[in-house]
């Protein structure tokens, strides 16, 4: 029996059983729509959360001083370990697996412009490496800190977008001067806005960034807030952490196995954990959507059983004139797969249209929408949906088809 004949017969039956066909196709369409939307929203949320984590630290490890918890070479436990700005260079020099490093100093200060507007923001002193490590990229017309700023202890500042607007309003901030306490600074750049779901002492768009050499020359201090390092390869993060314990343990005289002497905020580890969490969420959402499709498949199977019963006489005639069992099985499986495919195509088209509409919704200024992100349809979602539809189509048609193929011609011809 040729495939085109089976397809022609399918559409003939579809025309004669419009209500039944509509309800079946609608059930499959709704199930497909549910699967695609659930997985796409899960994918969009996962991508947005990863963007937020990367905005707080792109494959970096922040190292904070802690307190020793193990006695070491006659020294008591409970000693404070306070890192210094030269430790960033020490870690770079002693570990080739570190690509870049920066000390970070921090202090909340009041900023004032032209004696008219004032605002407070967390001021940090860092080196140029933090631009890439924390994704603090400038908008056109400005720049981040450079080595000349560090060596010259220049009084220049890179501003977050929100604090720049609060301070300068509608004016272009780059090139203008403002005061931090009683010290005059010149704006060299403004950060492009970014979504950030993790932060320390406030978001970057409310941050004032200055050279760390300028920071410690105005507000002298020995200990740093933290030291940020980026491994050359993200998989080396644990090796970099262990090496930091060994190098700094030798300098500050604490046991390298003391896990409280230093505190590590590892964005690589955080991202991996986040990825696993959202993979679990995707599996759960896929199971919920797949169950909806499975229920639609049960409906198709029930309808196919009814079809087999209604067409018993027809099956008997086909068997009597030479149709083999595999032809009968192929006929009913084809009808089931075509019903499932038609419903799936309609559901998928509707879901893609809704996803496209969500992509047009502006999220600027809406924290809830920024947190959720836009639904994202990806190849794995397409593969899962198509695979599930095929499996359900085969499942829904197989058992009714086998039942139809077992009908004896004589009994079928006598059936009324």
Q: In words, what does this structure look like?
A:
There is one protein chain. With 416 residues, this protein is α+β, with helices and mostly antiparallel strands. The chain folds into three domains: 3-54 and 272-414, no CATH class; 67-97 and 232-260, no CATH class; 99-231, no CATH class. 55% of the residues lie in helices and 15% in strands. The protein is built from 14 helices and nine strands. A six-stranded mixed beta barrel has the order 2-3-7-4-6-5. Helix 2 runs antiparallel to helix 13 (379-405) and helix 9 packs parallel to helix 13 (379-405). The protein is elongated and about 100 Å long. The model has no long low-confidence stretch (mean pLDDT 83).
Highlighted features:
single chain, 416 residues, alpha+beta, 3 domains, 6-stranded mixed barrel, 14 helices, 55% helix
Determine the N-to-C terminus distance: 26 Å
* Proportion of beta-strand residues: 15-25%
Number of domains: 3
- For the biggest β-sheet, the strand order reads 2-3-7-4-6-5
**Overall average residue pLDDT:** 83
Main sheet specs: 6 strands, mixed, barrel
Extract low-pLDDT stretches. Answer: none
Percent helix among the residues?
A: 55-70%
Helix and strand content put the structural class at: alpha+beta
Task: Kindly provide the radius of gyration, computed on alpha-carbon positions and rounded to a whole number of angstroms.
Answer: 33 Å
Q: Figure out the total of helices.
A: 14
Q: Which word captures the global form?
A: elongated
Strand segment count? 9
């Amino acid at each position: 029996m040729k495939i085109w004949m089976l397809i022609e017969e399918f559409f003939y039956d579809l025309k004669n059983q419009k209500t039944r066909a509509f309800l079946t196709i609608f059930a499959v369409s709704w199930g497909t729509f549910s699967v695609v939307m659930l997985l796409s929203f899960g994918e969009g949320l996962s991508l947005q959360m990863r963007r937020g984590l990367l905005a707080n630290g792109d494959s970096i490890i922040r190292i904070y001083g802690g307190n020793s918890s193990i006695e070491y070479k006659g020294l008591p436990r409970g000693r404070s370990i306070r890192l210094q700005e030269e430790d960033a260079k020490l870690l770079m020099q002693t570990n080739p697996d570190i690509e870049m490093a920066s000390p970070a100093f921090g202090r909340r200060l009041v900023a004032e412009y032209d004696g008219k507007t004032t605002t407070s923001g967390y001021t940090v002193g860092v080196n140029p490496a933090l631009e890439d490590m924390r994704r603090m990229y400038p908008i056109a017309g400005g720049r981040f800190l450079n080595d000349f700023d560090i060596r010259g202890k220049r009084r220049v500042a890179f501003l977050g977008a929100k604090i720049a607007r609060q301070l300068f309003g509608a004016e272009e901030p780059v090139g203008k001067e403002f005061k931090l306490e009683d010290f005059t600074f010149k704006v060299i750049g403004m950060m492009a806005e970014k979504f950030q779901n993790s932060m320390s002492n406030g978001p970057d768009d409310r941050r004032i960034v200055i050279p760390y050499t300028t920071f410690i020359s105005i507000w002298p201090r020995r200990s740093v807030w933290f030291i940020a390092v980026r491994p050359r390869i993200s998989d080396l993060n644990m090796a970099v952490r262990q090496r930091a314990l060994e190098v700094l343990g030798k300098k500050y005289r604490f046991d390298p196995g003391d896990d409280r002497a230093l505190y590590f905020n590892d964005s690589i580890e955080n991202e991996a954990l986040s990825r696993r969490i959202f993979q679990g969420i995707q599996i759960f959402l896929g199971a919920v959507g797949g169950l909806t499709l499975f229920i639609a498949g049960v409906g198709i199977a029930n309808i196919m059983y009814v079809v087999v019963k209604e067409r018993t006489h027809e099956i008997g005639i086909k068997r009597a004139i030479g149709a083999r069992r595999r032809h009968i099985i192929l006929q009913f499986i084809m009808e089931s797969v075509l019903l499932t495919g038609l419903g799936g195509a309609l559901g998928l088209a509707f879901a893609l249209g809704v996803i496209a509409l969500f992509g047009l919704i502006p999220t600027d200024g809406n924290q809830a929408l920024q947190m959720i992100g836009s639904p994202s349809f990806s190849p794995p979602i397409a593969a899962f949906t198509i695979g599930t539809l095929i499996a359900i189509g085969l499942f829904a048609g197989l058992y009714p088809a086998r039942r139809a193929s077992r009908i004896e011609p004589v009994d079928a011809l006598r059936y009324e």
